[in-house]
Amino acid sequence: MTRSFVRLAACFALAACQAAPKEGADPAPVRSARFDVRHELAVTVPEGAKSVRVWMALPRADPAQEVTDLRTEAPCPTRVTTDDHGNTVLYLEAAAPPAGSFRVVTTFRLLRREVRRDVDPARARPLTDGDRKLLQRHLQPSTHVVVDDRIQRKAAEIVGGETNPVRAARRLYDWTLDNIDYCVKDPDRKKASPVGSTVYCLDTGTGNCTDFHSLWMSLAMAAGIPTRIVYGSFFKKELDGQDVDQSYHCWLEFYAPGPGWIPLDVAVADIFVGDFRLDEKNASLVQRTTAAGYAGRDPAMVDYYFGNLEERRVTWSQGRDLLLEPRPEGGPVNALPKAHVEVDGAVHPEKTGWTRKLTFRQVG
User: Fold this and answer.
1) pTM value?
2) pLDDT mean across residues, the chain
3) 109 plus 150 within the same structural domain
4) Which of 94, 269, 316, 321 would staple 332 via disulfide (CB 3.0–4.6 Å)?
5) Which H or E run includes 149?
6) For residue 333, what are the CA distances in angstroms to 55, 133, 142, 253, 323?
7) pLDDT per residue as tens digits for the range 174-223
8) Same domain assignment for residues 93 and 233
9) How far apart are CA 278 and CA 48, in angstroms?
10) At what angle do helices 209-222 and 149-159 cross, to 10 degrees?
11) Does residue 326 have a cis bond before it (omega within 30 degrees)?
């Protein structure tokens, strides 16, 4: 092949996550896992600060996950808000806080199910103008997900005259695997953009998960395929119970009439293409870019990530250019995989202004 928070009813989740089996086949059981999760934000308060505002991602309502026992610890009152993409966000504001630091902690139990969707193109039909009008929001570019003339030409070149959205999406998937390399493969020479950028990814041929998926989104939108980005985190098998942040990850969903919303993760699929050597510089990075480790080239995993997601994930948010509530002084927020913090109306940067630590323990 080419390189190529709320609890939801269990029956609804299973129906949404499980693909229709092929006729005559016995489908493998949908895998699931339970985790106890701790999500901690540490904010540094500069001397003389008059106001600190924090928007912290909470687990999003998602058919693939059930969240229970959600608790919050914070030094001042908090409230739960919802942004323009339906993301649930924990908000707090501290007036004239003392210099130093404070922590905001959420804990919860997560039941997460594997997502499997039907990617048989025979079950899909071409999108109509009515479909696209109904899903117009998911065809709109954003600040860093652009659809310009170059993207239009490239999408037409890749998709050709294919009108079946599943086949067209697979062509885009395979092209991305053929032409873009995940930066963790060669960290000395391949870098990620700081914002998740279509243009950066296309120009450099590399990037992280947000770069990969920004480019794929742009190409899909140019081809008339509604697409949305999802931010979450892996619960990496080797870090179970460890005091190590799980970082963040993102993936995509595209819409095909018939099957509906279909997930894909072309960034992680690129790891399993296997066209690189492991060494002392990249081995740990590569292992921690996957949910359960890496043991070399695996075409089955490349196919798996077109339509399926393993159960070792949590969903935080969806979308780009988010209009958080209440509105930040800096305007729309690029994405919310962790948190957004402002001090006296200015963006307080991650690492120097705040850090996030996500840890977990698998309990079933």
Assistant:
1) 0.92
2) 93
3) no
4) 321
5) helix 149-159
6) 10, 25, 11, 21, 7
7) 999 999 999 999 999 999 999 999 999 999 999 999 999 999 999 999 99
8) no
9) 48
10) 80
11) yes
